[in-house]
């Protein structure tokens, strides 16, 4: 045997291992390139980001700035041609309820006239979960804000949160929230259930149409809502007497709320709240809903279901995760029957925010790694938004010293 064979063989094996490692790393790098980090307007310690895109295609970012140990502020920034605008403050307080999963929001009335509404949560009594929804409004694009009002009229010191704001018209905004007014009552020895409620309001803080949409729902999962051709559709996590906590929806059709129905019967039975709400987007008759489930036989999954009749019915869902998801989903429709869904996927070291295109026919391409993140609660819920041809992502970065910082990125044209 040639005495030079072994050195050549060793070099070949080393080259092969290096090639394999480089190939794996390149694939991870390649998917990560789908997200370009933007300069974030959030300075200092911050968290709980949210995104909203108005009827003119302008994106707004909101977040909470932790001013000190006792005071928090809600700030916002508008995406302009040169980047995010200078942050402006909506409100600040020392009595706020600040929670990783129950974050503030901002929405704009349609029409591009600078009418905005923003919400946050403030304590109403000494109980841990005694807090109210506060909504302030602006008629000058956020230069000034009205005194806040409370959209629920029960006046009880109980949990009110997980709010979704949905613009309906130039003079109407809808709020949907989890309402715990009955959780302080005991009926036949049992504590009352969390309910889902809604109301509409105008730019002058006048309330209309407060209604109960569901009398028994999961206690601490996010709500979401979208406007289809038939009207508003609201998605949330239900709670049956048998502790089945699947994703349900209700629609307002011709002024009336429909009876709640499941998007799909996962039959996830769980005695506690999973703190993992659904997400919805709509375009005309087309609606897409994303959610997390962990039913006993199926295990943890992220699913997407489509409707072609404005939410009257939903097709069989498509599973989109990589095998070990933690949920925390969001979704945007790129086209009427093509959606981009994001979620948190557990990895060997930490976690990653993943995304993939999906249609009623199944996955459209491979899942993308957008950014590495922490699996801890402090990393919050990543938020997607579509502004024109740009896809934006906002998330909370957990730093090595334990502090958190709001980050923003945009996906390239290859999404």
How would you describe this structure to a colleague?
The protein has a domain at 49-216: 6 Propeller (Neuraminidase). Helices cover 7% and strands 48% of the residues. The protein is built from 1 helix and 32 strands. Strands 2, 3, 4, 5 and 6 form a 5-stranded antiparallel sheet that branches. Strands 16, 17, 18, 19 and 20 form a 5-stranded antiparallel sheet that branches. Mean pLDDT is 92; it is low at 5-31.
In short:
By secondary structure, the chain is mostly beta strands.
Secondary structure tally, helices = 1
Uncertain stretches? 5-31
**CATH level 1 class label of the domain at 49-216:** Mainly Beta
What is the number of beta strands? 32
If you consult CATH, what is the topology of the domain at 49-216?
Neuraminidase
What is the distance, rounded to the nearest whole angstrom, between the alpha carbons of the first and last residues?
54 Å
Q: In CATH terms, what is the architecture of the domain at 49-216?
A: 6 Propeller
Query: What would the principal axes of the Cα set say about the shape?
Result: globular
- Taking Cα atoms only, what radius of gyration do you get, to the nearest Å? 23 Å
Taking the sheet with the most strands, its summary is: 5 strands, antiparallel
Structural class: mainly beta
Q: Look at the structure and give the mean pLDDT.
A: 92
Query: Which percent band covers the strand fraction?
Result: over 45%
The helix content is: under 10%
Features of this protein?
mainly beta, Neuraminidase, 5-stranded antiparallel β-sheet
